[in-house]
Amino acid sequence: MTTRTMDEAAKVFADPSAYADDDRLHAALTWLRANNPVAWVDQPPYRPFFAVTKHADIMDIERANDLWLSEPRPLLATAEADDLAKAQLEAGMGLRTLIHMDDPHHRKVRAIGADWFRPKAMRALQGRVDELAKHYVDKMAEVGPECDFVTEVSVNFPLYVIMSLLGLPESDFPRMLQLTQELFGGDEEEYQRGSTPEEKLQTLMDFFAYFNKLTQDRRANPTDDLASAIANGRVDGELLSDVDCLSYYVIVATAGHDTTSHAIAGGLRALIDNPDQLDRLKGDMSLMPLAVEEMIRWTTPVKEFMRTAAADTEVRGVPIKEGESVYLAYVSANRDEEVFDDPFTFDVGRDPNKHLAFGYGVHFCLGAALARMEINSFFTELLPRLDSIELAGAPELTSTVFVGGLKHLPIRYSLR
User: Which of 38, 39, 88, 171 could be a cystine partner for 94, CB 3.0 to 4.6 Å?
Assistant: First the structure.
């Protein structure tokens, strides 16, 4: 039997609070990339896994989607939460989104929403996104000269965009925000509904109750929105199962705005922390598409996904047995010294920028184009009107092992 020893630095992967401490996190990741790029992690309450920290290895795993499967462990969760999720699915409930699925079923289900995120659809949505960007910059001007940028701006702007795409009433937006923060913030004391998996599961049940009612309405009265496309979507001629349909709503309604919110807030903080880059971008707005990619790389809102080996294999010479899991450390990949020149320098003109913040391969983020559009629109509206900006307090990051970023960004500013 092979004896596996856990590297002290690898404990960060099983510690949600590590993601609220950039210095600690990146010190560990940098060491692992150089010394132990496929690190064994055996740290309760999680089941064991290998943490993969190099950009090239993560891309290789994402390419080989027939060898490395999303099921049954698509993301890092406690053993107790994994068991509860499995039991719920076996009972015809639970969550089975695109990130949980493998081909060929994944490809067929993904196609239901794909047209809503293609270039033609994005061009049709551009005006609404620009309008909302102006609304929230105007709001900054109204509430200034200080605000908590996260709670007052960055969580709301992408939320309004995705809720508009789904066709949901504005009165429901605050509820969707709360449920999203509870779902993704299960490790964050400020957001979590409860501490046990059963308590956290209630958030999912509330999502399902809301979207079950929406499904029945859209099937009886179809409209021209993404919610109707999901409710009436078919795979092999059959309507989506209740689990797949409701899970589709959940992933669009949550990942469709929460990740973008973190990128916008983290992007603004990076500009504040790097005033030379802020001045450079304000002086040459043609750099905006490159700056958007750098903000996404810098923040990497989705910290990880996991894959399980369908057969005995190896990664960088490390043997991995069928049924064992790997953790794809996107945060580490996006600071890989072999891929990015000066990876710890925020550079609004970085080109090329082969970040993995949207994943890679068949699971590449469905809403990537929308996220890029929103970030671009917001900063294109903000920067020409921005005379000055600085921190008005200490920024705070969420404790998480999955999706996260800034939960508070107090700023002081002057807008014209």
Answer: 88
